[in-house]
């Protein structure tokens, strides 16, 4: 329940506003005096204040300044007498959210309060996301707050303590190389090289020399060079798209993994290595093994510690965190001044299916920042990529489940974990809503952060 402070030196006006707001399920605190209002604001966390311009002892602008010292993000609506537009303009310049002329219409007051609370909610979300991002040392540390990503990071921490081969799998754009880098920097090998190679991007005729190196004259145009296995000695080698490696190279890779040594092309010298191997694929390797295009013995050699990365649609809780990060990344890069996302833009980000996953989300935010002429990213600027739109529809069952979970996340976020209020908004029985939350592994307590302590309020 939103908490609203109302300050006016006319008791009749206080009574009217109090009656109207309580009838619309707001928790209201009223006072006739500015000094009392300041004391109340220090003891309670208000979501919005309605302040009369003319008060006994000081004006509303002076009181607004004191309230903003306590809570700089508090939206304040100034009540002014009829015809005092100059006072209203002055109040807006000093930081008022909006103003209303007396006598005011009840519906107009309620509309202004609703909009002010939406602004407050957006400011709180932006602050929360930025507080999280402040503690990050770079893109490697963006792992999300969702349960699934916390499980992934738990696996990363454990796997980083070992030298066992690691297999990372998941859809394109889920951040497999990012996790590989995280594994490297969390390991005892962090002070040695991390090298990455995409097996699908290198022609078969060049892949062997790329991996193991060559001597001059080993093949037409060959020069003496080290391969990535040697360059990554004592460090980590990340082999992406391992499923695309030709069968002939798979056999050679298997021997290297077993013997920890290899012979560069055209050389008689054996090179011994101590290299941590991490591989990745966006295909189900077990299925590729069944088709006969991937060696079963190699599969078991690299499949010692499997780590599955969930698609973005299965960790919706991370979308706004990632979007905020990418917005800051590209506003810094493009030297723009952006203040976040509108409520409708945030909703669109949460509802979209993201078949391109984190990569698609980053591209979308980069484009929105580049094309923006405002300081806020609005709904019309969130344009999913054409590539993702052509990926096809989900099965109906999956689409319904995703929509249901998205709806619940937005509902419980909107009510800050208040299940009773959420049930009323959804038109559901409280017990039924609890069952739906349980079904999608959503805990109301996870959405209560940053809302202040309501225990000291009577309402």
UniProtKB/TrEMBL annotation:
Q: Which SMART domains does the record match to this protein?
A: AAA (SM00382), REC (SM00448)
Q: What's an example GO BP annotation here?
A: regulation of DNA-templated transcription
Q: Does the keyword RNA-binding apply?
A: no
| Keywords from the UniProt entry | ATP-binding, DNA-binding, Nucleotide-binding, Phosphoprotein, Transcription, Transcription regulation
Q: Which residues carry this modification: 4-aspartylphosphate?
A: 52
Q: Where is the Response regulatory domain?
A: 3-117
Q: Which Pfam families match?
A: AAA_lid_14, Response_reg, Sigma54_activat
Source superkingdom: Bacteria
Q: Which GO terms describe its molecular function?
A: ATP binding; DNA binding
Q: Would you indicate the residue range of the signal peptide?
A: none
Q: Which sequence ranges form a coiled-coil region, renumbered to this chain?
A: none
Tell me the InterPro entries matching this sequence: AAA+_ATPase, AAA_lid_NorR, CheY-like_superfamily, Homeodomain-like_sf, P-loop_NTPase, Sig_transdc_resp-reg_receiver, Sigma_54_int, Sigma_54_int_dom_ATP-bd_1
Q: Which SUPFAM superfamilies match?
A: CheY-like, Homeodomain-like, P-loop containing nucleoside triphosphate hydrolases
Sigma-54 factor interaction domain span: 142-370
Q: What is this protein called?
A: Sigma 54 response regulator
Phylogenetic placement of the source organism: Bacteria, Pseudomonadati, Planctomycetota, Candidatus Brocadiia, Candidatus Brocadiales
Gene designation per UniProt: atoC_4
């Amino acid at each position: 329940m939103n908490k609203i402070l109302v300050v006016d030196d006319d008791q009749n006006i206080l009574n009217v506003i109090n009656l109207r707001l309580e009838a619309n399920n707001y928790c209201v605190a009223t006072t006739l005096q500015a000094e009392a209002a300041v004391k109340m604001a220090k003891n309670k966390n208000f979501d919005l204040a309605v302040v009369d311009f003319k008060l006994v002892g000081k004006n509303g602008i002076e009181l607004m300044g004191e309230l903003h010292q306590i809570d700089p993000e508090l939206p304040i609506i100034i009540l002014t007498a009829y015809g005092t537009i100059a006072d209203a303009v002055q109040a807006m310049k000093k930081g008022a959210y909006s103003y209303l002329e007396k006598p005011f219409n009840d519906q107009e007051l309620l509309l202004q309060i609703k909009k002010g609370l939406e602004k407050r909610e957006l400011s709180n979300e932006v602050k929360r996301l930025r507080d999280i991002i402040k503690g990050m040392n770079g893109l490697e540390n963006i792992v999300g707050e969702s349960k699934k990503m916390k499980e992934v990071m738990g696996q990363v921490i454990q796997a980083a303590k070992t030298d066992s081969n690691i297999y990372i799998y998941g859809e394109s754009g889920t951040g497999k190389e990012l996790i590989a880098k995280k594994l490297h920097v969390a390991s005892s090998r962090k002070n040695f090289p991390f090298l990455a190679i995409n097996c699908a991007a290198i022609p078969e005729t060049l892949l062997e020399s790329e991996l193991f190196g060559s001597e001059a004259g080993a093949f037409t145009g060959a020069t003496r060079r080290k391969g990535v296995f040697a360059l990554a000695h004592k460090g980590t080698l990340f082999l992406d798209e391992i499923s695309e490696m030709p069968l002939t190279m798979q056999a050679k890779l298997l021997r290297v993994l077993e013997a920890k040594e290899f012979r560069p092309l055209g050389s008689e010298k054996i090179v011994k290595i101590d290299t941590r191997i991490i591989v990745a694929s966006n295909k189900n390797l077990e299925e590729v093994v069944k088709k006969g295009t991937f060696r079963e013995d190699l599969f078991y050699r690299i499949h010692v510690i499997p780590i599955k990365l969930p698609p973005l649609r299965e960790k919706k809780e991370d979308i706004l965190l990632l979007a905020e990060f990418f917005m800051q990344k590209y506003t810094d890069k493009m030297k723009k001044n952006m203040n976040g996302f509108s409520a409708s833009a945030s909703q669109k980000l949460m509802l979209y299916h993201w078949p391109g996953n984190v990569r698609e989300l980053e591209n979308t935010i980069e484009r929105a920042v580049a094309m923006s002429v405002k300081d806020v990213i609005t709904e019309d600027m969130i344009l999913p990529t054409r590539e993702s739109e052509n990926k096809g529809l989900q099965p109906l069952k999956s689409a319904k489940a995703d929509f249901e979970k998205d709806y619940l996340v937005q509902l419980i976020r909107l009510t800050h974990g208040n299940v009773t209020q959420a049930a009323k908004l959804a038109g559901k029985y409280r017990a039924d809503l609890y069952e739906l939350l349980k079904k999608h592994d959503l805990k109301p307590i996870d959405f209560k952060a940053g809302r202040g302590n309501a225990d000291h309020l009577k309402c």
